[in-house]
Amino acid sequence: KDNQLARWKDEPTVTADGKRIVLQANIGHAEEAEAALKQGAEGIGLFRSEFLFMHRNDLPSEEEQFAAYKKAVEAMVGKPVTIRTLDIGGDKELPYLQMPRELNPFLGYRAIRLCLDRPHLFLTQLRAILRASNYGQVRLMLPMICAAEEIRQTHRLIEQARTELTQEGIPYDSQMKVGIMVETPAAALLMDQLGAMVDFVSIGTNDLVQYTMACDRMNESISYLYQPYHPSVLRQIHYIVEQAHRNGITVSLCGELGSEASAFPLLIGMGVDYISMSASSILAIRETAASLDSGKCERLAASVLQCADQEEVLSLLK
Ligand code: PEP
Ligand code: MG
Predict the structure, then answer these.
(1) Which of 115, 157, 239, 299 is deepest in the core (most CB within 10 A)?
(2) What are the two backbone dihedrals, phi and then psi, of residue 171, each rounded to the nearest 5 degrees?
(3) φ, ψ for residue 89 (rounded to 5)?
């Protein structure tokens, strides 16, 4: 089976009727980039940078971060590498940051909120990512966005990092794309506005499901409510794609839903441009794509958006 799949490695991802979609890989460490490329990834759609910060006693320096980002970028030889800025908090703690104890960590001091509260920490990372952009195609991505002001503040910090690097004579890609994760209903429902402020968006379904369903993604006793195919989740994905395209920007999806074969026709039908998944799923999904008709996928998506619950959606997808 693996041997049969291998023939898809260097092929583009296209449906039977010629609709193009791009399949990328999620990684947590720079060392995984090379293997992702070998498994047919057309880029890195999500580099979870927080792993660089975990299991140690202090913050990684700008040099350490730069080395890791550069390594991933060089391994991908010109293909895009989407580096997500620090997404800590929620279930992922950093003892050395002395983060406050909270009643609701998933609704608390995390990700972009923490970074904007600690601009020195954030600037170090932004500088490291900008420096890595000199060695390939880097896309910088912000996690847990809920408000336009978070994007404005980040743009100001990126501008400051650029100015510093220019003054220091350190090279970077002045065209580096900046995008956001859409993983809260607040961001999803504001896509018409937020889409005008960024170069791309990427849907984080793991958190979007959690926040839409008001269902802790780690809590076993309510896991029946954690429903990626709930019509309220799918309607948001549909709206995000529609409004992002109206703004002339592309839409990625990088949550676990992207690896599910049963979701794939639906995501094509809704018009998602890029899907980022665990590298081991890429070739099988690419093979599936070749047997699909995009018109049928669109009709499937249209009917799914009229469903009342996840059960109905799942029976349509069968
Ligand atoms: C997501 O929320 O869907 C996502 C890709 O990010 P993470 O799983 O790291 O929260
Ligand atoms: Mg997330």
Answers:
(1) 115
(2) -75, 150
(3) 100, -175
- Measured by CA distance, the residue closest to atom 3 of ligand 1 is 204
Q: Quote the CA–CA distance of 103 and 135 in Å, as a whole number.
A: 43
118 phi, psi to nearest 5 deg: -130, 70
Backbone phi and psi for residue 138, each to the nearest 5 degrees, phi listed first: -100, 140
pLDDT digits (tens, 9 = 90+) for 266-290: 999 999 999 999 999 999 999 999 9
Does 42 sit in the ligand 1 pocket, CB within 6 Å? no
Close Cβ partners of 65 (under 8 Å, ≥ 6 residues apart): 49, 52, 124, 125, 128, 129
Residue found under tokens 């949550």:
255
pLDDT tens readout for residues 49-58: 999 999 999 9
For 98-163, give the DSSP string: -PPP-S-GGGSS-HHHHHHH-HHHHHHHHHHHHHHGGGSEEEEEESS---HHHHHHHHHHHHHHHH
Q: What is the pTM of this model?
A: 0.97
* Phi, psi values for residue 105, rounded to 5°: -55, -35
Q: How confident is the model at residue 1 (pLDDT cuts 50, 70, 90)?
A: low
List the residue whose alpha carbon is closest to atom 4 of ligand 1: 204
Residues with CB under 5 A from ligand 2 (ion): 183, 204, 207
Q: Report the SS3 class of residue 263.
A: coil
How does the average pLDDT of the chain come out, rounded?
A: 96
Angle at the Cα of 292 (from 289 to 293), degrees rounded to 5?
A: 135
Would you say 42 is a known binding-site residue? no
Q: Alpha-carbon distance 302 to 279, whole Å?
A: 29
Q: What is the DSSP letter of 3?
A: H
Nearest ligand 1 atom, CA 90:
10
